[in-house]
Each structure stands twice: as structure tokens, then as C-alpha cells.
Protein: SAM-dependent MTase RsmB/NOP-type domain-containing protein
Amino acid sequence: MGRGRHRGRSQRKHFKESRENVWKRPRTDPTVDASDNAVADKPSWEPILIDNPNFEEYYKEQGIVRAEEWDVFMEILRKPLPAAFRVNSNSQFCGDIISILENDFVKSLQAEAIEGGELEAIKPLPWYPKNLAWHSNFSRKQIRKHKTLERFHEFLKLENEVGNITRQEAVSMVPPLFLDVHPDHFVLDMCAAPGSKTFQLLEIIHGASEPGTLPNGMVVANDVDFQRSNLLIHQTKRMCTSNLIVTNHEGQQFPGCRLNKSRASEKGLSEDMPINQLSFDRVLCDVPCSGDGTLRKAPDIWRKWNSGMGNGLHSLQVILAMRGLSLLKVGGKMIYSTCSMNPVEDEAVVAEILRRCGDSVELVDVSDKLPELIRRPGLKTWKVRDKGGWFTSYKDVPQNRRGGVLVSMFPSGKNLTDSTQTTQNNENGGVNASEDGCKETDKSVVDAIPDEPVVEVSDLPLERCMRIIPHDQNTGAFFIAVLQKVSHLPEFQEKPNPRKHSSTKNADSTEKAPTEEAVVTADAEPVESPVEKVIEADADVEKDDSLVEHEKEKNTEGETIKEEKEANSSSHAGDKRKVPMQGKWKGFDPVVFLKDETLIDSVKEFYGIRDESFPLYGHLVTRNTDTSSVKRIYYVSKSVKEVLQLNFAVGQQLKIASVGLKMFERQTAKEVGSKPCSFRISSEGLPVILPYITKQVLYSPMADFKHLLEYKSIKFPDFVNKQLGQKAIDLVLGCCVVILSDGEEPVEVDASTIAISCWRGKNSLGVMVTSADCQELLERLAERTPKTEVGSVNGSNGDSGGPADAMETA
Structure:
């Protein structure tokens, strides 16, 4: 016992000492032999650079924090970011997870917190509803590396893998909370990867729906980068939702899929389609940014940071936000957010949006929402830095620098001296300026002495924006603005005239049409991933018709496909790759509605699914046009179905990376043979379809259910409950569902019902669940039963008569 206590003290001492070294890396000196280093007993670690004079100068000048706070601000930025995570509110074990955190880890980790000088090891974030979000006083690296935190680390890993929690930075959780999402909303996440906010949006949509029903809304999660889209798919897969489409487009060219009447009549489509245009009730526009708000999580940014990073992304951020607003329904809300502290990427972008949109968009005051979240109002004045010089007004920018420093970066968004040239907001229908220029009685300019720098102060209500500062709550930094579309956007925002801009040769005219801005900012985007556009054989006719229809109806919310065509031709100049035809996106399998009635009927009959209670026709899609080769069948909600129908009608403009919920998978085992159904129910789809299955169901008592999870396979004679073994024999060979029951049959299925997919083989019953899911279920069941009944949760694999050896999953 004494030795154990000594070992525990040693571990805590080591842990305390290493808390200060989590950002350190090996120091190598090629001129010194390793043995010499050992003899000299010199430290083998040196800290990663966490200093950048340019960064300090820049943010001191911008006045992000008061002078008396500066030292505290910089001190917290140099410390590692504490780990944070969120409990999935839709998990059937949500209450169990919160209980474990509150009653176990809060107490068991307290000793480590005290050793490290903290008051609490973990605690719920006070501003997040229902104690669903938690903050740890340990960094992710500390949790991963230290023995004293091993049990907590294993808990987080397992629950994250099965989808019960999501590891997410605390400030990243904020934007969806201000979006006010309802279960019937169509939501667009424009720059969605890696997917934690998308997961959060799906939670909100499902959580607000009636129990046992699918929401009428949906989420479209988009990201330009193909690899990041895969990460997004993996992240959201844990949600088990049929209300999601993942797309792979440049956000500024996201298609609106507008179906005009002539196109509908040509294809024999009814004009009464549920939707004839892809528009959204809510848009989350979390744009690419310089990312200096994540310094605590990514300390390598210290070395790379310079003010040009924000300047280079400003135009792209504006055009992304404008595209988001054009896809937004009137009355809808959009969040513009960044993980940057830079006002050029934050307030300047919001100000430019408001100038371009005039009275059609307003900046919403949300200061009364989430009162426990500490945030600061947006800035009204800031400066722009370029090539070592500071500018307080666009008039001070040299002619040769006006290609990189835009008028929209300044608080007023106006050229204050050139009376012969209309200002940016004049051209875009924003706040009007007088004909003799803006010098006259411009409220946005503070009176200045001649030849002195003009100090601009925005006359827009930018204080309604919010900036989260790291040292206020021991977090990262974030910027958020809530915008509401109160009327249709000005027509020219949807149909810019490129010739008007290109004919202006004066260097002062730095304003660009959205299509031009997209080209300019392509080089500034951190990850260059050009997206191929669909150009159909008859697309020119369709696009022209669409534009004429658009002009006639004065509906500026429609998709301006002509604009996209021009942007595409500019951004892909010199691209010799063949452009895909008819929506056959390179690297993506087509999305096809499954219409094979024989196959669908066989599935319905095998599992006893009544179509009137759970319709399959029209809700099943595949990624293969050949029914005989179909390996996976996906289920889509009513809302996703409508979007897919629209996408087919407009020539498959959406580049779909993932859609719906994997419901059935083809089984290729020899023993399947010519049985009635060769498709098994996937683990992801089981929670959705479970209430509607009336055949191939077993009700298992606790003992046998645990044995299945522990040993993965049980031979029929080995069931503790012999009646259950006989009922398993009576099942048809193939997939079945085992429901945990206390002896009553049948069980009324609800959100608390625990069930797993299994395979009824020739001689045994085997689980078709991942090892992680089995382990997680065993741990949850162990908490619900007395210790004398728990048994081993780390049993051997037992007899290998299950699907792991007998079958190969397609």
C-alpha cells in the first residue's frame, strides 16, 4: 500500500512539472554528440516559439483589449488550450454520460487539478444549455499523455467514437446557439469541415422534433476541400441521421438549383414540385480565416502569423457571406463567424455586407441571449496595415498598394477624397454619399487637422457583433455576427455587371464584382481546391431562360447561373481538364433513387415493415445505377428527398459527397445463398427503422444480451435462456434484431430501447456491431445492474461462430 501511495505521488509530481512543458519539442544540435549531451546533462527540450513582435504590435494598435489587460491577454495566449467536449443531446445515453461526469470524474480528477493549481478539473460550461458542454483544465495533450488521466482519456475516446460526445473547442460551440434553428428549417453550413458545428446543428434539429419522428428540416453541409469533406462525413456519420446532405463546392459558387418553368416543361416535370429552388431558413457562414484565435490550440501560427494573412482573405470572406445571404430566405438568419481576432476579417466584412445589402439585411442585437457567455461588442474603428505601414483611411493608401488594400477594409468603406469616383457603397446601393464626395458631413469620419491621418469610425451598428477574448473565460478567440434578411437583396447583388467594373481603369476603383473577387481571392485561400462545374449540353439554353425568368419575376433570390458560368470560366482559365457532363462529377458516384420494386418488397417482407407506417418507396437511394451491384442502400428524409428531386430536375448541379443514412448493406456470405433477403440492417440505420420492424426480432434478457456483447457470438445451445435459443433457431437465416427486454414481449420501442443487429447463422447467433459499440454498451449496462450480475466486460471473443469469421461484409 505504501509503495502504491509513493508511486501515485511520483506520478502527480511528474504531471505537475510537465504541465508547463506541453508545448516543448526536442532541441537538436548537430555539432554536439549525443553522448556529450548526456554527460553535460543539458535539458533535451526547448519551447516552441510563442512570440511574434508583429502580432503584438498589430493588436495593440487595433485596441482589441484595453492597455491594462494586455499582459494578461498575452499570457493566456501562450498557454495551451484546455480541452472541451459536448455531450450528444440525442444519444440514448445522454443522461448516463452527464451523470458519470458529474458524479465520477468531477471528483476523481480533483487531485490532479489541485496539483496543477486549478480549482476544478472539469466543469460544465455555464452558458451552454442543460450541462451538455464541458470544459477541462487540462489540454488535449495532457489528457493524452499522462497516466493519471488515462481513465478519463479512454472514456473520452470511446464515447467520441460511438457518437455520445463530440470533442470540440468551446468557442466553436457558440455560433449554432445564436442561429435559432427549428426542426423544420433548411440549414446550410457553407464551410462545414471538420463537422463539429454540423453535428451540433443536426442535434438541434432532431432534438426539437417530436419523439419517434424525423424532422421536416435538413442540413446541407458543404466544404470545398475533398479530403476535409471525408472528415466531415466521418464526423457526422456518428449522428445516424437521414436529414443530411454533404456537398463539395466552392462556397462562393454554391448552386441555387433554380428550376425555371421552361426547363420543367421540357422534362415533363410538374410546376407544383415541393421546391423549385434551393434556399435556406438558416445559413452558417464560418469562413476561412487567418486563424489567430486558435493560437492556443495551434501554436505554430505564432511563427507564421503576419497581417497580410487577413488582408488576403478579406475579399473571399465578403463574397462567401454575400453568397450565403443570396441563398437565404427572406426572414431567415445567417451567422458570419471567424476564429480570427482581426477586424479586417471581422467587422470590416460585416460592414461591407451591410453596405452592399442596404436595408435588406440587418445586424441583429443578441446581447440578451446566453447572458453567461462573456463577450465584447464589435469595434467601430480600426486600422489597416500593409507592407509595414498603417492606414486609417483609404485616401492614405498609395496607388501602387490599392490592389491589395481595398476600400472595403476601412470602417467607412469609402474613398474620402476622390469626388469623381463613386464610392463602393454608392455603387452597391448602400448608404448614399453626396455628389461632391464623402468629405462633406460624413458621420463616419472624425474631424481631423489637414495633413493629419483621418480617423474613421463606422456609422453602422457594429457593436452588435460579438468578439470572444481568450482571457475572459480561458478559451480560444472567436468573432460572431448574426444577420437577418428582412427583404430581397438589391438586384445588382445577384447580377453584377462585370463590364462596368472592368472598364474602370482608375486604381482607386478597387471594388470588384463578386465573380471578380472570387478569382482574386482564390490565390489567398489557404487550401486551393478548385471545383469542377457542371456544363450540360443544353445548359446554355437553360441558363439564359433562367436569367430571363429571373428578371421578369424580379425574384432576386434565384440562382444566377450566368454569374456562376462567368466565375467558372475565369477561375479555371487554362485548366485543360475535361469538364464532366450531366452531373457525373469526377470521383463521385451518382445518387440514384432505388426503384427496384422486387428488391424493396423483399426487404419489406423479410423484416415485416409496413409501408404506410415507414415508407420505403421514394426514400431509398444508392450510389450505383446497376441494381444487381448495389452494396449499400441509404434512407433519406422527406426534406432530403425533395432536394434530390430538385437536383435531378436542374441537371444535378449539386456535387454530393454523401447523402442520407446507411440503412441496408448487402451481405455476401456463402450461407446467405438464395435466402429471401440478402440485405442486413446497418447499425447506423437501426435506431430509425427499429419501431417499424415486426419480423426477425428477438427479445433477450440481460444475461444473454451481455454475453452476446462480450463474446460476439453464441451457439444456440449455449444461451442461458433456453427459450431464447429456440426462438433464435426458429428465425429465418439472415439478419435479425435483438432487443434488451426484462422478459416482456413484445417491447414497446422508444428512445430508451436498447437493440443491436445480429446475424442468425446455421449454428449460432453473432453480433453485427463494432467492438467500440459493444464495449460502450457493456459499460452502460454495468452501471444499471448490481455488481453481482455484471460479469466480465472484458471477456474473450469466445467461439468464432459469428459473422466476423463466417461472413465478409460488402
